[in-house]
Amino acid sequence: MAIAGVILFAKSIKLTTKFTSALDIPVEFIEKNVKLRGRLCHITEKGLEVEHVPISLPFLSSLQRKWQSNGVLLVRLAGVELTPNAVVWLQEELKPAEMMWFQLLGREDLVLDCLILVNKGRFFSVCLNEEILRQGLGKTTRIEGLHHDSPLYWKLHKRLLQAELKALKKNKGIWKEESYFEKLRDHISNNKFVQKLKQFANWLRIHI
After folding, report:
1. What is the pTM of this model?
2. 170 with 134: CB under 8 angstroms?
3. How far apart are CA 104 and CA 109, in angstroms?
4. Nearest to 37 by CA among 111, 128, 112, 103
5. Which of 49, 85, 121, 127 could bridge 72 with an S-S bond, Cβ 3.0-4.6 Å?
6. Is residue 161 helix, strand or coil?
7. 101 — phi, psi (to 5°)?
8. CA-to-CA distance for 179 and 182, rounded, in angstroms?
């Protein structure tokens, strides 16, 4: 019983440890695709900078605060290639210091590839990876960190493709087709005869 208690305590210490670097996260956490809680700090083109908020135990809370160090994790939206507009959208949609959950899928040096979940109301959460694709603000890519032939890989990849397909069907974001008038305007502006007329008009303004 005493040994079992020590093992359980050791596991709880891992769950209550604040990770300030991707390298600090145990390999088994990533292999088991553990979900961690975090607080948004900053949004960059490379991903989200998130402060890890570990599980708090009543009898360890005071000690936890003493042990915890400062630092943020760089979390990348797994399976999604972001556009510049996606970064702007994230900055508009996410609140400063917003709480979120990130499910570990892979690690590349100091970057974590994750599914990122944000609560919207008491009973509803949004997966940012899917929402970015639904808005037409990114494209699906390989999910780094997962084996290509694993059931989880294809389950998640299917979800991402379905989200991307919704944006494609609705012509949203990068999938928005140019209107007839936009195409006509571009065709006229690129027409050689029109360009020569513009050059002639400029010449007249200078010499007359």
Report:
1. 0.75
2. no
3. 14
4. 103
5. 49
6. helix
7. -115, 140
8. 5
The b-or-e profile of 117-140 (16+ CB within 10 A means b, else e) is bbeeeeeeebbbbbbbbbbbbbbb
- Tell me the per-residue pLDDT of 29-60, one tens digit each, with 9 for 90 and over: 999 999 999 999 999 999 999 999 987 766 55
Q: What is the mean pLDDT of residues 108-116?
A: 96
What residue has token string 């607080």? Answer: 39
* pLDDT for the residue numbered 181: 54
Q: What is the pLDDT of residues 121-171, one digit of tens each?
A: 777 899 999 999 999 999 999 999 898 889 999 999 999 999 999 999 999
Dihedral in degrees, nearest 10, Cα atoms 72, 124, 57, 4: -100
Residue 70 has pLDDT above 70, yes or no: yes
What 8-state DSSP symbol labels residue 91?
Answer: H
Buried/exposed 145-181: b ≥16 CB within 10 Å, e otherwise: bbeeeeeebeebbebbeebbeebeeeeebbeeeeeee
